[in-house]
Amino acid sequence: MDIDKIRSDFPILKREIYGKPLIYLDNAATSQKPRAVIEAIKEYYEQHNANTHRGVHKLSEEATELYEEARKKIASFVNAGGNSQIIFTKNATEGINLVAYSWGRANIKAGDEILLTEMEHHSNIVPWQILAKETGAKLKFIPLDENSELRIRNGELKKHLSSKTKIVALTHVSNVLGTINPVKIIIEEIRKFNPDIKILVDGAQAVPHVPVSIQNIDSDFYVFTGHKMLGPTGVGVLYAKKELLNEMEPFITGGNMILEVKKEASSWNYVPWKFEAGTQNVSGAVGLAAAASYLMNFGMKNVLEHERNLTSYAIDKLSKINHLKIYGPNNLEKRIGVISFNITNQTGKLLHPHDVASILDGEGIAIRSGHHCAQPLMEVLGVEGICRISFSVFNDRVEIDKLVLAIEKAKKILR
Ligand SMILES: Cc1ncc(COP(=O)(O)O)c(C=O)c1O
Q: What's the CATH architecture for 3-30+300-414?
């Protein structure tokens, strides 16, 4: 990958922060956008903007075609096996809420078990907590082992499953540890235990960084979010198996999701539109398709390799800094380019992650600090907060070298 060329695709990288060139290492929170995405959105508004699926005029036809073409592009990007299984949502969070609300309320009852993991983002915890509270179901969590992986080997996964387990909802990649969970193997094991258990995979941190084939993974539900994969904010995706989408009740209701409305009752539109009520984020879908094309031009294997090379380089450099602890799997093959760390002073006192991040910000370096919307995981790790860097296609080694110098500076200031 030609990193200089790639960097020139991202207009924001020309920015200076406090007079220093921007070093953006917060891609797991949201990624920056290449010109191809920005231009696709601009062109949509300048040339094709109209409401979709409604008008018979030319612009409405064009907008509808662009929106449905975007669905096709996303289906092919994640090898979904069919366009109608791709539902456009606002983000990954909405996709999970849709499943918890629509599938959950029809299928979960008192005493049932919902199995999550200790490394989930709040968006894959809170909707299930609410469902459990409403129905009297129970939440269970797969714990982590000492290498930041799920404790599922040697038959351990089965210990967390029971005849009451109705759904397993787990992240494909941890937003804090970078751990890539072996979701295909996990799903095979769950299906062997009981083929009726449904499985939701949260792919928010996987789709931007690793090749994803949903057909190969074979989950019942798979969600991801546009803004972390170089696309715009306000658009995400829920994939679900066709038979589930057909039997599920709608989540949000109103225009567009109906076939016919009478005064007293209505019938639902076909899948996927049954789950897309109201005017949709058409420009967002167009921008997301442009992001998928941009990534597909590199090939996700190459994206992963580039980001893994950076991860290896960064871990090597960071691990030479005294009193800096890196979290996540030791084995590079089991992680993506998300590196969380904490620093202590000579007496063992934690340098507050926000203080570290503020000093790095002064050097033009954007990193994330805090609980990363994963407070249960923070509790497991025994910390209140953590510093995190996360890579994308445009990052390079020079930025990591500058990060290391800035961390040394932060250590001196906070000593
Ligand atoms: C693993 C994971 N899941 C879900 C989400 C939620 O994404 P969004 O806020 O776009 O819905 C995030 C965001 O950080 C995430 O890292």
A: Alpha-Beta Complex (3.90)
> For ligand 1, is residue 169 a contact (CB within 6 Å)?
no
Tell me which CATH code domain 38-296 carries.
3.40.640.10
309 pLDDT exceeds 90?
yes
Q: Which residue in 149, 94, 147, 90 sits closest to 118, CA to CA?
A: 149
Identify the pLDDT of residue 9. Answer: 98
User: Ligand 1, atom 12: nearest CA belongs to which residue?
Assistant: 204
* pLDDT tens figures, 359-399: 999 999 999 999 999 999 999 999 999 999 999 999 999 99
- Find the mean pLDDT for residues 72-97: 98
Ligand 1: centre distance to CA 182 (Å): 19
Q: Where are the domains of the chain?
A: 3-30+300-414, 38-296
Nearest protein Cα to ligand 1, atom 7: 92
Of 123, 205, 207, 212, best ligand 1 pocket probe by most atoms within 8 Å of the beta carbon? 123
Q: Beta partners for 168?
A: 115, 199
CA distances from 187 to 17, 173, 217, 221, 330 (A): 45, 15, 8, 12, 24
Across 297-315, average pLDDT? 98
Q: How far apart are CA 192 and CA 198, in angstroms?
A: 12
Q: How confident is the model at residue 266 (pLDDT cuts 50, 70, 90)?
A: very high
Residue 202 CA: nearest ligand 1 atom is 3
Residue 235 Cα to ligand 1 midpoint, Å, equals 12
Q: Is the CB of 97 under 6 A from ligand 1?
A: no
**Ligand 1 pocket, 181 CB below 6 A?**
no
